């Protein structure tokens, strides 16, 4: 019996390995088709009278425009805690050169490092090369600008409160807003940096996108051309969440958006008119004019934290401390700053409203803006985990106050609107005005191995990124990472989750395929696979993923070190040829017949073995030869 089962098991294993070999041969032959491989191409303050004249002229001009001007819709990257800023992507020149620029409502000039810069840091992208752009023109010296020593070209100079500075020459070139923007590329004046100091020198971002009030502001230039409405909107992701969205141009304000008046003649900065603050439902006792400083209460997207006047901040701080007196206070992460930190509140940001008080900002018109704890706290991950509040004062409100808040700067109507929302998800929900979609200027780099025409379809996705009739089986891409963190396994696990969020796919679809290392540098290959139970990625999803990879739109926090996307591959869906299909059917039929035959033989052998076995009837007498006499 044991021998029979041994032979049956051996036969089955032989058949199993034969089947595996034949199927792997078929698949291997089918894999010989090469994938589609593409590399990733991826100053002075204006006088009040001048501002007044410009404002009147702009409003008269805007009143003559039709109501359906296009918008420039841009995705925001980076986060306030890790970077201290949010960035947007702009492309300058012909062919376009890409830059990551800090979104700054307090700046009035857009500038990038110039190839001729004598003192510029190492930033995220290459420096702008005017000589490589066929559409670049220097802004010639004229009576309305400051000029260089040779009196040939206009110059700019900007100084910032943190003691950094930027200076250079002014030029004009085509500025593009990306493949998902309705707005056609526009000529605009920008700064080409020759010298940068302080934080501007050390930061990872390339430069500044100036959205403030001023003739050199990118907003003023676009509005003066009549290509967008006199409004823009920003929406920053929540605590420890990257990204968000920005729209240059008018959007329809949601019904629940609350507005404050913003006086353009009081200050060159965007300001709001605050009346009072409530903490845990109680109005803070403040002296008259607590929010009535020289510039009003300034809203500055280029600043990380929130600041108030000393007396207003002291009252606000004391009210928060009183509400969370049961939490333990510990020193902040940086001994150079007197931050107020709390431990014992856990790690979950969503639970903060159950511990920390609710805050309301009340405007002069009686409207209220609700602030959650993430709008006045920042989290420190280093053990022990803690939430902190800045212990400084000033007269501006910054990025942290408007996290997860859609802020509309309605310059045409002198108002700033606020709406609490999930800014990380807003990118997918922004509505367009219905203007026709242009053919974008942004194109792949010159080293692309395969030319694929690229046109923006009305839906906002590339209509022919994939050549011909092409079903994508899976997508791979390589990422170069340089990090000092020794816990690579933990980094890769977190990267998998972040990549799935950036590409807007399920976690199960993102798989780590391979890792090669050399000291602290790693080359990681990732795969994006179809969602179960599909056996290929739909064209819509594939185009979206490829667009994000192609335009370098995967942005990860700096805590992962330096990283760079290398190239992506779109593997076709595996389809068997007709002869392979027939062969596989015959193979499956033969294997099925063989298994059934072996099973039948096995059953017959077992039955035969049982019939040959002799049994003694119960109760029969035992033959005497088996009986042994008892020993006495």
UniProtKB/TrEMBL annotation:
Example of a GO biological process term: proteolysis
Entries under PROSITE patterns matching the protein: ASP_PROTEASE, PEPTIDASE_A1
Pfam families: TAXi_C, TAXi_N
Record-annotated Peptidase A1 domain positions: 86-419
Residue runs in coiled coils: none
Annotated transmembrane regions: 6-28, 583-606
Record: active site: 104, 300
InterPro entries listed in its UniProt record: Aspartic_peptidase_A1, Aspartic_peptidase_AS, Pepsin-like_plant, PEPTIDASE_A1, Peptidase_aspartic_dom_sf, TAXi_C, TAXi_N
GO molecular function ontology, one term from the record: aspartic-type endopeptidase activity
Keywords: Aspartyl protease, Glycoprotein, Hydrolase, Membrane, Protease, Transmembrane, Transmembrane helix
Family: Belongs to the peptidase A1 family.
Name of the featured protein: Peptidase A1 domain-containing protein
Species, as recorded: Gossypium stocksii
């Amino acid at each position: 019996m044991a021998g029979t089962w041994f032979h049956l098991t051996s036969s089955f294993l032989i058949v199993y390995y034969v089947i595996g070999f034949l199927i792997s041969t078929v698949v291997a032959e089918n894999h010989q088709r090469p994938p589609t491989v593409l590399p990733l191409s991826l100053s002075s303050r204006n006088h009040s009278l001048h501002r007044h004249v410009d404002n009147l002229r702009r409003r008269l001009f805007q009143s003559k425009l039709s109501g359906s001007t296009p918008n420039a819709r841009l995705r925001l990257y980076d986060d306030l805690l890790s970077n201290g800023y949010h960035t947007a992507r702009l492309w300058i020149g012909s062919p376009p050169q890409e830059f990551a620029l800090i979104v700054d409502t307090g700046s009035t000039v857009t500038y990038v490092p110039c190839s001729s810069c004598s003192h510029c840091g190492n930033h995220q992208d290459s420096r702008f090369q005017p000589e490589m752009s066929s559409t670049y023109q220097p802004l010639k010296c004229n009576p309305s600008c400051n000029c260089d020593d040779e009196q040939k070209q206009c110059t700019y100079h900007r100084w910032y409160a943190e003691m950094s500075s930027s200076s250079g020459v002014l030029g004009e070139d085509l500025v593009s807003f990306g493949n998902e923007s309705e707005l056609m590329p526009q000529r605009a004046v920008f700064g080409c940096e020759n010298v940068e100091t302080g934080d501007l020198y050390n930061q990872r971002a390339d430069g500044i996108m100036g959205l403030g009030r001023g003739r050199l502001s990118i907003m003023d230039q676009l509005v003066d051309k009549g290509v967008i409405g006199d409004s823009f909107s920003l929406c920053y992701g929540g605590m420890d969440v990257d990204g968000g969205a920005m729209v240059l141009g008018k959007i329809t304000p949601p019904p629940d958006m609350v507005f404050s008046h913003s006086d353009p003649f009081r200050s060159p900065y965007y300001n709001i008119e605050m009346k009072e603050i409530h903490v845990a439902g109680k109005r803070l006792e403040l002296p008259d004019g607590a929010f009535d400083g020289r510039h009003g209460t300034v809203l500055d997207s280029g600043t990380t934290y929130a600041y108030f006047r000393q007396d207003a901040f002291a009252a606000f701080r004391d009210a928060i401390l009183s509400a969370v007196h049961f939490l333990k206070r510990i020193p902040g992460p940086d001994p150079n700053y007197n931050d107020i930190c709390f431990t014992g509140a856990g790690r979950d940001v969503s639970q903060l409203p159950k511990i920390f008080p609710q805050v309301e900002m009340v405007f002069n018109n009686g409207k209220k803006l609700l602030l959650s704890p993430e709008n006045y706290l920042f989290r420190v991950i280093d053990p022990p985990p803690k939430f902190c509040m800045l212990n400084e004062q000033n007269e501006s409100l910054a990025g942290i106050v408007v996290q997860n808040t859609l802020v509309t700067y309605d310059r045409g109507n002198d108002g700033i609107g606020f709406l609490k929302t999930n800014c990380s998800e807003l990118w997918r929900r922004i509505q367009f005005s219905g203007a026709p979609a242009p053919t974008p200027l942004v194109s792949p780099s010159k080293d692309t191995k395969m030319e694929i025409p690229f046109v923006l379809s009305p839906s906002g996705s590339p209509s022919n990124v994939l050549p011909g009739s092409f079903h994508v089986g899976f997508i791979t891409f390589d990422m170069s990472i340089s990090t000092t963190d020794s816990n690579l396994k933990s980094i890769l696990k977190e990267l998998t989750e972040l990549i799935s969020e950036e590409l807007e796919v399920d976690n199960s679809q993102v798989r780590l395929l391979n890792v090669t290392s050399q000291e602290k540098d790693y080359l990681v290959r990732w795969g994006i696979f179809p969602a179960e139970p599909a056996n290929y990625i739909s064209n819509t999803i594939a185009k979206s993923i490829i667009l994000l990879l192609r335009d370098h739109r995967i942005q990860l926090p700096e805590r992962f070190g330096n990283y760079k996307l290398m190239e992506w591959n779109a593997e076709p869906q595996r389809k068997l040829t007709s002869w392979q299909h027939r062969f596989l059917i015959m193979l499956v039929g033969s294997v099925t017949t063989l298994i059934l035959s072996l099973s039948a033989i096995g059953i017959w052998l077992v039955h035969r073995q049982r019939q040959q076995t002799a049994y003694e009837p119960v109760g029969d007498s035992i033959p005497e030869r088996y009986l042994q006499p008892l020993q006495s």
